[in-house]
Amino acid sequence: MTIKVIVIDDSALVRKLLTAMLSRAPDIEVVGAASDPYAAREKIKKLNPDVITLDVEMPRMDGLTFLENLMRLRPMPVVMVSSLTQRGADVTLRALELGAIDFVAKPRIDIAGTLADYEEELIAKVRVAAGARVQARTGIPQRAIDERHSTSAVVPALNLRKMLRTTDRIIAVGASTGGTEAIRELLAEMPADAPPIVISQHIPAAFSKSFAERMNRSSAMAVCEAQDGQQILPGHAYVAPGDRHLLVERDGARYLCRLSDGAHVNRHRPSVDVMFRSVAQNVGPNAIGVLLTGMGDDGARGLKEMMDAGAGTIAQDEASSVVWGMPGSAVKLGAAMHVLPLHQIGAQVLRLVASAAAA
Fold it and tell me: Catalytic amino acids?
């Protein structure tokens, strides 16, 4: 099946560039382009695209206003084209709240050798958007690498020793495409005195601080971007910085955040598999693992390692996931003890915490 795309951008050069890139994919056809939302609105009605790419900042009507109207009147898959700036991060995260599926960076036409990687990421995200579940409401690509590093490149595998259960719990959450909103909904369910939460969301470095700040504003917990050596405390959630792995390290009776510049794993840094393995090794049965919506399979094997270490594990179900790649892979591996819609995951996490405390 051919994916029909409309490119919306006020720059003629960017429209031409995106159109050329997408047109090189055999399963994608750019059926139209528009310089502003008013022209785009008529082309969407006439051409009925499967996906649109949408510039954040445009004349006459900004991308957010157009997106909000679109998701109210004609919900459809949207990939935002964003600048890697503080304002770009804030606007893009708001676009994801409004229902955009994903985002790509503005193409950097002045940097030789980067466009091939950009094209690969753009095409992949348009394909995912075409098959995604649009959840109407009223990311620069991760750097590609030639080889697929295993989790062991960052955290060596161990024969897990038997761990004593304590009252110290840690909740580990991983997500990718659609995850910024899924994490927000999950954190909104957590009380202020919940066990600490460590989070690895596939997000570029320029966006992770803004993401953590947005989560902090919508959660009773204190949410921050994790820092190396930071103590992990109840009532706090720690977001992996973009382009760094987040690991959990045990230091006597304390847990600490440890950041790593190790190899990309599953093409990602931060990698959910890396974080989950560190939690399996250092927290074991005192942990709860949650794998949310996302493209690919990062986190599936790590969730299985957590389950094998005695942790409770949860995967988001297919119907509520924007993309059921990561949680679906975990389910296929037999890594999920519970497979639940997003709106039930928070309550299940709290049940697991309560049952462990009573044991």
Answer: 176, 202, 298
